[in-house]
Amino acid sequence: QTCVSGGLLAALLVLALMLSQGNRHVAIQLGSWVHIPHYHFQIELVFDRLSVPFVILTFLLCGTIGAFANKYMHREPGFNRFFVFYSLFVLGMIVTSLAGTIETLFAGWELVGLSSALLVAYYHERQGPVRNGLRVWCVYRVSDAALLIASVVLHHMTGEGQFDQFLGAGAWPEGVASVTEHQAFVVGLLLLVAAMGKSAMVPFSGWLPRAMEGPTPSSAVFYGALSVHLGAFLLLRVS
Questions:
Q1: What's the CA angle centered on 235, arms 135 and 223, to 5 degrees?
Q2: Rounded distance between C-alpha atoms, residue 128 and residue 132, angstroms
Q3: Smallest Cα–Cα separation from 112: which of 58, 41, 156, 183?
């Protein structure tokens, strides 16, 4: 709770600074991890009008439900295990929200998927939760594969992973595209499949009711509030 509260205060401070200074796009480079001809993979965090409100919402909901879970789960034998998975989820949400490159977003995307599947199978002494957790994980694999292929295709076409560079320069529709119509269609289709799988859209919606096998707090914050909306966030980020 201390970490979540500190993160919420920091996010509110960043929002206040952005509003007071009029700077609506702040990018923080954390280094280039792989740099070879035509490819480079960077870790970059971006604070803008999309990421900062989503981060504030994440901290508010995760902090509120975490405080509830502290009382609700206090007699469960896997109390500490629950909060380890819960912490992984919060970290994944923050990394995904602040990602400035598609590979950084993919790292947070994977953390969210892993922690979600583990929490669905939290009551591992029963067959049902384990089976449903595996099915959720399988659907997430399709979504993750689509996002990973989109990332590789974008790097192959443009050599860029930054969201503000890899599809062109300038705001839509006046900007200059760096990919052809057919290339943009392929990448857009892959990103749409990734968003559909994560957000439980038809035909991937079957995992959502199965996710209710997890503890009530995890169902509330993952599948009812935040995790299920990551697909829409991805489409907003690449729009």
A1: 35
A2: 6
A3: 58
| Kind of pairing between the strands at 39-48 and 25-36 | antiparallel
Q: Give, for 24, the enclosing helix (H) or strand (E).
A: none
- Which residues are CB-neighbours of 31 under 8 A, at least 6 positions away? 42, 43
pTM strictly above 0.85 = yes
Burial category of 180 from C-beta neighbours within 10 Å (exposed 0-12, middle 13-18, buried 19 and up): exposed
**Main-chain dihedrals φ then ψ at residue 98, nearest 5 degrees:** -95, 0
- How far is it, in rounded angstroms, from Cα 59 to Cα 10? 10
pLDDT tens-digit series, residues 146-203: 999 998 888 887 767 777 776 666 665 566 766 778 888 888 899 999 999 988 888 8
Output the six-digit token pair for 126.
């029963």
| Residue 46, phi then psi, degrees to nearest 5 | -125, 130
CA–CA distance, 185 with 46 (Å, rounded to integer): 26
